[in-house]
Amino acid sequence: MNPSFKFLLALIISIELSLKTSLTTNLLVIVFAVVYLLTQKIKFKSLLFTLLTPLIAAFTIFATLYWFAPQPNLENALSLSSRIYVYTLTICCVSIKTTAEELARSLEQNFHLPSKFAYGVLAALNIIPQMKRAVKQIRIAGMMRGVYLSFWSPVLYFKAILVALNSAENLAQGMESHGYVEGAKRSVIVAVSLKTSDWLWSGVILILVNLALFTLK
Amino acid sequence: MIRTNQLSFSYDEQQKILNNITLEIPTSKFSLLIGPTGCGKSTLLKILAGLYPKYAGKVSGTVELDGLRSAMMFQNAGEQFTMATPREEIIFALENLQLSNDQYQDRLSAATKFTQIEQLLDQKITTLSGGEQQRVALAVLVAMDVDLFLLDEPFASCDPEARQFLITKLAHLRDKGKTIILTDHVLTGYENICDYLFQFKRDNVTLLDEASKNELLHDSQQEHTYTFALPENETPCFVLTNAQVEQNRILLKQDHLSIIAGKTTLITGANGVGKTSLFNVLTKMLPYRGSITYDKREIRNQTTRKYLLEVGQIFQTATDQFIAVSVEDEIKLSLKQAKDSYFTEEKIAEMLDYLDLGQTKDQVVYSLSGGQQKKLQILLMLISSQKVLLIDEPLSGLDYESAQKVMNLLHESQKQRHQTLLIISHELTNLADWCDYHLVFSNHYLTYSNK
């Protein structure tokens, strides 16, 4: 499916489900998301990770609403905590087969998002590994001079921010030196296709979710 | 003709980087800009590229590009890429130029063939070596097919073969009518290729006449031969046994090697062979397999904090070394940790003057020029007085005079304090005469060489 459609679909479903409580719909979405992830051959380890990490948040919400609320309501507690899984799993369905590059390109081409925004975010994502390495190197550089920079040390963050600011500035200049002009027209070399089936699938999924949302409890 | 008229540039009110420069640079020619570090060569290129004053500083005077479309390659090529891989970066650049898919296919294959980066196209740029990144940066400019190539030290991390290859390629571009303007500190390989040589000297830029240009370029063309000793049963500092280092691909696979203590060992090898990664392994930034010991103890088992007070690395990029903000604070920080009395306050003041850094004491380290940062960085690490220093390209970005001074400083400190120095350098003048041993890194293997 078209990356932007996938992304918007996940967004709409998440928003709808956070406005109206329906435990059954939540569970249906969760089950379908897991089945989809399995058909996309998600690694068992990653699946376990995506299922276990939100557990902390989900459990906290459940505990607050069920054990510590003045009028505990099991269904309410379950439906609110299962929302956490709706959010994480739907986004997981988007990200499993879509790279950041594809999504940015698609948003630019299919939804006419300003290219400044699309490439700005992409460039920022590409800086992340650079930042990770930079932080490691800053700590090593510190230790060589007898300065131990712990993970909460202001100096570490000061340096890291300097590195980030510097990279951001260089990046802006780098983009410009490679012909990028803000607001100018760009051609499309790698086209992201938008097929009728994308519209159909999105429509069907949305109708089903809404049917479930408004008929099931 | 590219013209600048009464061109001045400054970052702040106090100091002018360029002062009333009036220049004529012929088009469709190969022009080389030379001069000491911090003289404003990079600044001039950025003004020609239209990046300054948009991104920094103030400009007065005029610049005419004669209608040429220009693109620039930065000193630190790695900072110039928006996308993750070379192929995506080329697509990004060509989309900016509003080219069609067909044009892209042609330009891509032409540019990759021209710079020979076929095997790098789909690798992550962050995993490429400095030299490979420079090659990719050139490929992007070739694909963009601009008229004016502005290149800021494009071969700083290239080995001699790669350097010669790229210079020849640039000459081909010139023959096709492109204008090449580049800065460099090393003059080898330009003889019979460079058309015009511009020399920056104290606020002034002069075009050398044909005779002095040829003389200058010819002198640096002389091939030097160096001889080195081979180590015999001396006390080792590092010992590698069945050591293996990997980073996306195998970099090092060494059954046995001893690196001698208290001596200076030069390490050379092609771009991307893994020289910097080796240093990163020795300072515990990268993992390794097998055994690498320092002073008979396994490196991975040592407490990082203690270990790094004995083994220090002088990074390729000077700013990576800085911890404090001002030059003075940096020096104080290093001095606090100094374990011997080699550097006294007076000696440091003297050294700062010697390196032309005397006036910069109150400056923010990040506002120094690239060359000044390099000199300060090396001084700081010498003050820190590690027993072992791993020095990565100490001469890159330094002009001849500064390079000589830095070498003197390193040599003197090594002699007096018997430090173990490991030096990676592509630039051997000033350096090779006093290094004790020479390790050649190729095919995942380090071997001592007597040449």
Tally the helices of chain A: what do you get? 8
Q: Which spans of chain B of ≥5 residues are poorly predicted at pLDDT below 50? A: none
Average per-residue pLDDT of chain B, rounded, comes to 88
- Give a short account of the largest sheet of chain A: none
Q: What is the number of strand segments of chain B? A: 19
Shape of chain B: globular
Helix count of chain B, per DSSP?
A: 12
Overall outline of chain A: flat
The proportion of residues forming helix of chain A, as a percent range, comes to over 70%
N→C terminal distance of chain A: 30 Å
**Structural class by secondary-structure content of chain A:** mainly alpha
- Oligomeric status of the shown chains? heterodimer
Largest interface: A-B, 47 and 60 residues
Radius of gyration of chain B: 23 Å
Roughly what fraction of the amino acids of chain B lie in strands?
Answer: 25-35%
| Structural class by helix and strand composition of chain B | alpha/beta
Instruction: Report the sheet with the most strands of chain B, covering strand number, pairing sense and barrel closure.
Output: 6 strands, mixed
What is the percent of helical residues of chain B?
Answer: 25-40%
Strand order, largest beta sheet of chain B? 5-6-7-3-8-9
Task: Give the terminus-to-terminus CA distance of chain B.
Answer: 46 Å
